[in-house]
Amino acid sequence: MSNKMHLKVFRGDNSGGELRDYQVEVDEGMVVLDVVHRLQATQAPDLSCRWNCKAGKCGSCSAEVNGKPRLMCMMRMDLFKPDEIITIQPLQAFPIVRDLVTDVSWNFEVNKKIPPFKPKPKNPDGTWRMMQYEVDRVQEFRKCLECYLCQNVCHVLRNHGKHDVFFGPRFMVRLAGLEMHPLDDADRVKLMREAAGIGYCNITKCCTEVCPEDIRITDNAIIPLKERVADRYYDPLAMLFRAIRGKNR
Amino acid sequence: MTNYATHDTDVLVIGAGGAGLRAAIESAAQGMKTAVVMKTLLGKAHTVMAEGGAAAALATVDPRDSWKTHFRDTMKGGKMMNDVRMAEIHAKEAPDRILELEEWGAVFDRTPDGRILQRNFGGHTYPRLAHVGDRTGLEMIRTLQDKLVHMPAEIFMETTVTHLFKTGGRVTGALAYSRDKGEFHLFRAKAIVICTGGLGKAYTITSNSWEYTGDGHSLAWEIGADLMDMEFLQFHPTGMVWPLSVRGTLVTEGVRGDGGVLKNNKGERFLFNYIPEAFKNDVAASEEEAVQWVREVVAGKQATVRRPPELLTRDVVARAILNEVREGRGSPHGGVFLDIATQRKAEDIKRKLPSMYHQFVKLANVDITKEAMEVGPTAHYIMGGVKVHPETAMSTIPGLFAAGEASAGLNGANRLGGNSLSDLLVFGRRAGLGAAQYVRKNNPAADVNRADVEAAIAHNLSFFERKDAECPYALQREIQDMMGDLVGIMRTEDELTRALNALDKFEARAKKVSVSGGRVYNPGWHVAMDLRHIVQISRSIALAARERKESRGGHARSDFPNYDPKLAKVNLLIKKAEGRMQVVQQPRTEMPPELKTLVEEA
Amino acid sequence: MAFTTPAMRHRLGETTRRDGWWINPAAMALTFLVFVVYAAWAAIQSKYYTYGPPGAEHYTYISPFYSPPFQEYFPKVAAFKFFPAFWVVWLPIAFRLTCYYGRKAYYRSIMLSPSACSVGKGAGRGYNGESALPWILNNLHRYFLYLIVVLVIFHWFHFFQAFNFDGRFGMGVGSLVIAADTILLSLYVASCHSVRHLIGGSVDCFSCARAGEARLKAWEGVSWLNQYHNLFFWASLITVGFADLYIRLCAMSIWTDVRFF
Ligand SMILES: Cc1cc2nc3c(=O)[nH]c(=O)nc-3n(C[C@H](O)[C@H](O)[C@H](O)COP(=O)(O)OP(=O)(O)OC[C@H]3O[C@@H](n4cnc5c(N)ncnc54)[C@H](O)[C@@H]3O)c2cc1C
Ligand code: SF4
Ligand code: SF4
Ligand code: FES
Ligand code: FES
């Protein structure tokens, strides 16, 4: 059961390139990444692409297939009609290294700016206790594969190039995972408003739409963080309340 | 002459899986100037794929557990081939290393009283695997990665080491190329820690990704370090078999730990027919007993009966599956059935095994809450590796250290599931510490001979010079297929000899492949450079396998199907002598009496 | 480390997507347009907003646009008599404009920022989102929430009134229309992100917080509702408009309310 399919694959680098046409033999059960590998092994040995686990676990093989940000290893070819033309492009929010590979190093720089986990003191019996119902929320955020599909689709980065002032949804997820950790003792609210630029997000949810781990980025991470920022900076009642309580202490 | 950048560092860590990250954290914490290089991006190493959990006798679920039982399980699982001291250190230190991760922000699944939850796994007497659903490795690597980025260590992503250098008997440096720019980097280092993981890519059907071409094993051997136990290769019993393009992708043992059963095409739980004598007392004798065990465990009680045979060690289960398939009782695509749908409620399956659920729905159109999976053995883990000192993790070459899957000793002839993740933490830390102490004590000079560097670069670039010679992808595939055919789960003298002859020819061909295109992110070129390692480590496996004329753990010979008590007393070393690979028998040291009683108590 | 991304070169609407990505924003924009035009007209009218059975002393149904009826409660205040709806309607408008979901809907459909995911915007670096005026004002959402709770209470008052036909318990189609509107509005408010935050979302450690267990349960409940917040947004928007229309048509005698009993 195999048939030839028509692909258009981006070949080039940051200075420019083209969508090149290829005809590839596709077998039953293949995913987009298999097709790219077949291209490498048969027609285009120097076609660059990143991958690792081939099971949707490492978040390496991010690309845009027919304009949709996807993990190539989890996208089956039988989603397409046999005569459909399939366009494969690299991520569009980062400089292109070559072909399907982009320079995502900016993300690693951002991660360094987030203050790490700071544990509360241990219980008298020398343990930390956290209940499953408390960590469920944090565990959702910790599923993140760092595939950067959300960073790629976020218009603040993608279309407006605000990399200097906005951390992007991936790191809102990271911040949420730290801020909501039951044992964390650090305070990142100021960072969220200022350096992380949470205000740049206009909660239009493209990040949520593309997350392969189904993390509800906007609803569960960004909006709750915006509310925490509102508590601190945009809520005179809460500010007054804090001021009074602070004095009494 | 091609240019290269030079970096000076105290400790160079090669690899950023669990072992590499933990080693780098320790080395940096010791005040060493530390650099970490890796073939992929940070956080994408193999460790990220580990699913089931990390074994440590925390005794949060079953208070009967202790380091002693963990030690005994590890030795028994390793068929007594383990380095005894390493197994002891591992069992004792693993709980602290796991708790330390929690201190760094890891969020494991919880017990009802708020401590770390532990799950059952093959070969472990008690529930012992600290886990996060079925993405434990992700949790671990993210925690370590986020810890490391806040430490003074330099991180080089997508930078692959191709050669190690030795001056005056010590290791002094490494040459690497960066994928994204195609540039060369020379690292002059006082100590080097190899944490390069496994070598599954020597096989076609494997759970490993493209990175795992045994680079660390091969590089260490090239500069004269001894390898050990290379015949012991773990085939994981449950890899996907269908569709073809995902053949080999892992199905976590957690499925069986959470109650999944293996059946042949007649619907029989065939493993009851394969229980080895040594495990007769540990395993349920009837389906009723096995069912009761699952029921008790699911209810969160301490098990009062013996565990199902599905939780036998991996070598046993893998061979049983192979035999069922060979005798015509396999599934349509040449595996057997792994069924959890009939054992657990759909919502439990989705909660405890979300990524398995996902993986099967997406890749195979199978809903594992309703249907059985088709599974078969897949090359998974190499027990063998660089021979290291159990306390310091130093190899037989001064200044060269190794930890994680790339090192040998802890696992003996067969690794227990979950022991790897804890191994990475325990010995990763020790390697980082060992390297730091070595540097502090000896303060060795790290001067690399310029001519060596130039020769190494010339070798790497030679693939561009030839035009229209053999394609590296095709050759790689040929080697992989050969290894699967001749050095697979069941081995024979004749096949191993043929494999060794084939490898000689492959070696010559690997030197002559050609690549097109430029140096920037050129995958064809990368494959070409990896071929040398694949050939070398394949040879080490085949050589050791031919030497061990018995069947034990991850090494099975159909011409010698039984244990040989004489061979129980030796480990096999792979040495380099006059540029050639040699296999040597190394007598094992006696086990200290107090540990011996621990093992024999069982 | 500013760099130009490949997508910054994309023109407005440029994409390699092949699906009907524009349908959704277009439908939303159309709905908004219809609602705004109708609501403006209905609010300016200042009559035909109550309905009671012929000859009854007191009305049974009152349009949600005119609830609470200040002009009725404070007959002496002349200001309430001019455009009585204006004293009411600003609040739900402000609430919906600052609603997290509402924001998404109009940013996408009206401001095309972005119209759909991975579709070109043709815009440069001049974007401040909600980090600067005017959109930073959206952070005031919780104030409108406090006020809208009062409004919801009135809605429930009028809900009960809709079954009160001059002192007798009864039910007409209009009663059901008002009931649907009241319930959906309540669900819309209850599923609000700010409610979710205030009720428990701000707590990190439920096992150590005061009333932690109760807050956890409440937070879980609101979180569940919150998944459907977008549905409640549209459903209550449509029912509020429809309730006004229904009552207006009855009041204008264009339509006769059907009484069940
Ligand atoms: C699918 C799967 C599931 C598993 N599940 C479990 C489990 O549940 N429990 C368990 O205990 N174990 C499990 N294992 C095994 C375990 O994950 C691995 O053995 C372990 O992660 C190896 O870690 P490591 O640190 O030694 O190396 P790896 O994590 O493999 O990392 C190796 C690193 O070395 C780098 N590297 C390699 N070669 C070079 C080079 N030439 N130059 C520079 N860098 C190089 C790589 O880029 C990578 O960063 C599983 C393995 C797989 C494949
Ligand atoms: S919701 Fe915010 S972070 Fe997510 S894509 Fe939209 S603007 Fe970016
Ligand atoms: S949050 Fe989701 S989309 Fe974003 S990087 Fe993580 S896994 Fe990818
Ligand atoms: S290759 Fe790992 S996610 Fe696709
Ligand atoms: S978020 Fe929509 S009403 Fe508050």
Task: Write a structural description.
The complex is a heterotrimer of chains A (249), B (602) and C (261). Helices cover 36% and strands 17% of the residues of chain A. With 249 residues, chain A is of the alpha+beta class. In chain A, α6 (169-179) crosses α9 (217-233). With 602 residues, chain B is an alpha/beta fold. In chain B, the strands form five sheets. In chain B, strands 1, 2, 6, 7, 8, 9 and 16 form a seven-stranded mixed β-sheet that branches. In chain B, α2 crosses α3 and α13 (472-486) packs antiparallel against α14. The mean pLDDT of chain B is 93. Chain C has a domain at 45-121 and 132-191 and 228-251. Helix content of chain C is 52%, strand content 3%. Chain C is globular. The model of chain C has no long low-confidence stretch (mean pLDDT 92). The chains are: A alpha+beta (249), B alpha/beta (602), C mainly alpha (261). At the A-B interface, α1, α2 and α3 of A face α4, α10, α13 and α15 of B.
Query: What's the oligomerization state?
Result: heterotrimer
CATH topology of the largest domain in chain B: FAD/NAD(P)-binding domain
Q: What series of H and E elements makes up the topology of chain C?
A: HEEHHHHEEHHHH
Structural class of chain B: alpha/beta
Individual helix count of chain B? 16
The general outline of chain C is globular
| Overall strand count of chain C | 4
Number of E-type strands of chain B: 20
CATH superfamily of the largest domain in chain B: FAD/NAD(P)-binding domain
| Class inferred from helices and paired strands of chain C | mainly alpha
Q: Helix share of residues of chain B?
A: 25-40%
How far apart the termini of chain C lie comes to: 72 Å
* Number of H/I helices of chain C: 9
| Small molecules (ligands, ions, cofactors) in the structure | flavin-adenine dinucleotide, iron/sulfur cluster, FE2/S2 (inorganic) cluster
> In percent terms, what proportion of residues of chain C is strand?
under 5%
- In total, how many domains does the architecture of chain B comprise? 3
What level of helicity do the residues of chain C show? 40-55%
Please, what is the average pLDDT of chain B? 93
List keywords for this structure.
heterotrimer, A: 249 residues, alpha+beta, Ubiquitin-like (UB roll), Fumarate Reductase Iron-sulfur Protein, Chain B, domain 2, 2 domains, five-stranded mixed beta sheet, two-stranded antiparallel sheet, 10 helices, 7 strands, C: 261 residues, mainly alpha, 9 helices, 4 strands, globular, binds flavin-adenine dinucleotide, binds iron/sulfur cluster, binds FE2/S2 (inorganic) cluster
